[in-house]
Amino acid sequence: MNAQSTPPDKPLAGWRVLVPRGGPWGDGVAATLRAQGAVAVIAPLINFAPSADQATLETSLADLAAGAFDWLTVTSATTVDVLYAYRAVIPASTRVAAVGETTAAALAAVGYRVDLVPDEDNSAAGMARRLIELEQGSAPRRILTLRGEGARPILTTMLADAGHDVRSVVAYRTVGVPVTERIARDVRTGRINAILVTSGSVATQLSEQFPEIPDETVIAAIGPWTAKDARHAGLGVRVVAREQTVPGLVDAVSALPLPHASDELSA
Prior knowledge:
5-stranded parallel β-sheet; alpha/beta; elongated
């Protein structure tokens, strides 16, 4: 039996966990990790840039303000940042669907209401299924879907296949951010015990920037689609969050034993 034990209220004591995004989102994730005893290492791997097609985005947001859409779908907190940056107006006649509680909270924080959050599957496909179910038997709805450049148009395709009038618009671009040599060394040597993978873009950057991730390092994906992207990028995913939220992801990691814990304690 180990000479030391993990306090029940601090299941991540001794862990060093890499948080792949900065800003308010990264700070919030770091706070969640610290509350469970982990050392959070914020190392932004991605950042966001304006859409390359500003004209289409601006036209679509003007149409949104004019009441041209029955639904607006929002699949990330970054999309909320875009809406707020453009001071987008969402009329009362347009209902707003958020992919999960984190996105819904981001919308509420800047003054936008939320009319729908999927109960179980917090993914683009889950939101599409919920919308299709909700609008079953109604006339085709006019839906504006905002997404990041390079994101799979799962939501748009499913809604269009169900007969709805969908306009898919790129709201932002994701760009890679090089990490410091210290972070690269800490990952390479196994000093980082776990890495959170929160999107396909993060998975791509992990694969490109960290070609030598020790087998013992826990790669934790926020959901099945992200896990699929991570594996496609060559990453060995150890755990997938059952609940596709940040708390769900942190809980998935906290259920695992600390890599090398027994070796370190017996040394």
